[in-house]
Design goal:
Elements lengths: L7 E5 L2 E4 H23 L4 H26 L21 H19 L3 H26 L6 E2 L1 H7 L4 H6 L1 E2 L4 E3 L2 H19 L9 H18 L7 E2 L3 H11 L19 E2 H22 L30
């Protein structure tokens, strides 16, 4: 596969630094800065989030790789060494989220903080990381959608030339939908929504991260349907039909589903997870509200049970 953009940013001797790694590092840094900035409103020191990043990034990357390899095991079982070649791509965002949230659960508990309060603070940073991280897929010319006319990219979407050219897969001789860009822009809008909602008085602890999952999963469901490299499994015929029916609105805007290799299955795993996450997040919000469990507001002070003195927070009065 001939890439327009060299995936290697620069080399130092035999060490090759790839754009993919640089972009993921930038994504993690931006996410950290957003969390640190919001943490200051609650009197939480930047070091708390820096330590979380040092633990969370490796956990996320490892789980993202395990998740991907688990669903594509046939490609690795005869060449186990390739499992560790993460610089060639091949990580799954849902696996990364599992790793990040598991790490966060134990880290927050160790520090004496409420899990829901802290993941709320981190939610916009997570989405920012995903927004930037998708450009790593662009550099590797992966995670694209189905075939599309060049005129659609240039004249309908009005994309810049460097994106259009990178969407041309020489081995196939066709252009593809920039699914990475669709998801990146969807995440950008989501960040704005989260930043606005978290200043509202009605918001309760745990609900911002729930809204994050709802927003991201809705976008991921429809964008995943356009991709040609989806992880999938062979599911009941009714389940596959349901996923197709839910995706139908995309056809109203002229989009077509990306090819799904029958050898992988007929149900895209990310689509199914997206639907389940939306349902779970909605139930989470409704049940806690109905039962009166959502008593803590997002803007209430955050206190660690392991600190002798509670941090002073002006968050409750800073609702602008």
């Amino acid at each position: 596969m001939n890439l327009l953009i060299d995936p290697t940013a620069f080399s130092i001797g035999d060490i090759h630094v790839r754009w993919y790694g640089i972009i993921l590092g930038t994504a993690a840094l931006v996410g950290l800065l957003l969390a640190v900035q919001e943490g200051k409103r609650f009197g939480i020191k930047p070091e708390f989030f820096m330590d979380l990043l040092l633990l969370g990034v490796p956990s996320a990357v490892i789980c993202a790789r395990i998740y991907y390899v688990a669903f594509t095991w046939d490609e690795y079982k005869n060449n186990f060494v390739d499992v560790f070649k993460i610089w060639n791509g091949g990580i799954a965002i849902y696996g990364a989220l599992i790793g990040a949230f598991l790490c966060g659960f134990f880290y927050f508990r160790y520090k004496g903080y409420s899990f829901w309060r802290m993941v709320d603070i981190c939610a916009p940073g997570l989405l920012a990381g995903q927004m930037i991280g998708r450009w790593g897929n662009f550099m590797n010319q992966e995670a694209y959608g189905g075939p599309v006319d060049e005129s659609f990219l240039r004249n309908t979407l009005h994309l810049p030339d460097f994106i259009v050219k990178q969407m041309y897969v020489a081995s196939e001789g066709v252009y593809h939908h920039p699914a990475f860009l669709y998801e990146s822009l969807w995440s950008l809008v989501g960040i704005i929504i989260l930043l606005v909602i978290r200043r509202q008085k009605f918001l309760r602890a745990g609900e911002l991260v729930a809204i994050y999952f709802i927003w991201y999963s809705i976008g991921r469901f429809f964008i995943e349907g356009m991709r040609t490299d989806s992880l999938a499994f062979q599911g009941p015929g009714a389940l596959g039909s349901l996923m197709d029916a839910l995706w139908t609105p995309m056809t109203w805007f002229g989009f077509e589903q990306g090819f799904l290799d029958p050898a992988y299955g007929d149900v895209r795993i990310s689509q199914l997870l997206a639907v389940l996450l939306v349902i779970a997040a909605v139930i989470f919000i409704v049940v806690r509200r109905v039962n009166g469990w959502a008593t803590v507001r997002y803007n209430d002070p955050i206190v660690s049970t392991k600190e002798t003195s509670a941090p002073v927070s002006d968050a409750k009065t800073d609702n602008l």
